[in-house]
Amino acid sequence: METLQFQSEARQLLQLMIHSIYSNKDTFLRELVSNASDALDKLRLESFRDKDMQVDVDDLHIVIESDPAERTLTVRDNGIGMTREDVVRLIGTIAKSGTAEFLKQLKEQQSGSASDLIGQFGIGFYSSFMVADKVTLVTKYPHAEKGVRWESTGEATYTIDDVDDAPQGTSVTLHLKPSDDEDRLPDYTEPAKIREIVKRYSDFITWPVRLGGEDINSRKALWARPASEVTEEEYAEFYRHISHDWNAPLETIRMQAEGTFEYQALLFLPAQAPMDLFMRDGKRGVQLYVKRVFIMEDCAELMPEYLRFVKGVVDAADLSLNVSREILQQDRQIQLMRRRLVKKVLSSIKSLMGTRPDDYAKLWGEVGAALKEGLLSDSDNRDAILEVCSFASTHSDESLTTLAEYVSRMKDGQEHIYFMTGDSRVAVEKSPHLEALRAKDYEVLILTDTIDEMWVDSVPAFDGKTFQSVAKGQVDLETDEEKSANEAKTAEFGDLLTWMKEQLEDSVKEVRLSSRLTTSPACVVGDSYDITPTLEKMYKAMGQELPKIKRILELNPSHPLVEGLRRAFAAGERDGLADTAELIHGLALLAEGGELADPSRFVKLVADRVQRTF
Length: 614
Ligand code: ADP
Prior knowledge:
With 614 residues, this protein is an alpha+beta fold.
């Protein structure tokens, strides 16, 4: 027998379970039954693929046994089982993405609300330690010579040992804590209690769950039952089973297609983003079944990456049971099905927008940034995605706006949907680029998600209105009079602009007069196709080499500093003028929250200038 240490994250989670104040302790049984059900699915699949596997798959099932005298409860399956290495890896450590993040959040919380977090994480096997002070697991993998016994009290270590005569599959025996009404710990050896829990949480499990020789679950696939007969609670439990999210889903979507390619789908939109939504190894949420038989999870062929937060099941009638990912990728029917699923999800989000705006807003807050990735990757559905997007805007400090709402507020003659990207709302709102638009009361979308920097360059228009960055290109807001006044100014400033461009040659590619400023002396803008400073920073952070990007310096001709510079320049003065040009450029960079190439030099320029006023 060997005694091994739990990995430190695992140890922390176990401690959490042992001292859990999570009120709904019944859920441990759901977790064990769910694991057993997965193990049966896996064995069925394996035996299908590997004809040499000497296993009995005729009567796959889950048995629950209790012994009131010994105070034990056992959940047994004759599924895939685990090898010794599996047990050490799967039960002794937690590989789940998001664990570290989860534990960090937990540390930051008061212990009182920790239980909510437990609920979000979905803790699987370890939840046994909410109700047991010792857990024994015996398991055998079909190709392994011997079985394995694992045992732990949930403290720092566990023991692991070979077993000669272990049956196929896994049994988990809980040595229950004494029942205690105060601690909301019922007597889990009572058959009525077990039956009630299985009925409530695991009724839909496709394998029989047996207690005292009797099947206690109905095993009906929810997606195959008439929608009118399935309760919210049943959907919620099923959702928990497949998603490991303990919250109820925000929306349930059912679909049915008859005819040459028959399928049923049961999909869910989450109330809370999955922990791994923005992690590199994050999963997609759709499982494929064929005629009620589980085939694969995380089925990328059924749902595009940007909809990875959608969880659920697709049951296709006309596929072969041993269909592989390679076959799926080439199957035209699958592609058609995926297209319909995507349309259905997007239309469901749209109808949520109309009928339950608060729920829509919640969903958007959780998964909007993922959904927007579709603007780049799914050009077929771009318009449908744009319709369900919401953005912050200068129209309101609190609520977001849809593009349709923005368009309905557009001014007479306004051709573009104006936006500005940046690191934060505050940074965008304070930026000088917005001045003229604000003065003329034009609405500007405030885009602060990383993904916004990317899609705005590839999405041409919404409802015929093109997107226009207020920090790029020319912003054309002027009346004809203003235009001719400006032309006169440009003539007046011409020589200064040329001279300034030479002075600042290393950092700017053009110096011109601006029509977007009212109070600031200057701002820097990009050409329409230049990348933004935020994007430049992102690329650099990813280690990408970029050529030096020169932007355009725009001057406000009515600002005293700029006007003073022009006068001095026209009078032939040159002393200190180059410093002033540099100063103005620095101010423009600071105003948009940018970084100066040489801050100490800038400080000196400012100090010199202030000194001159004394
Ligand atoms: P999760 O089920 O969320 O992955 P668990 O902690 O419940 O997390 O289980 C960890 C892993 O241990 C499972 O993913 C599975 O590979 C394995 N496992 C748990 N229970 C069983 C079982 N009854 N039969 C076979 N493998 C199991």
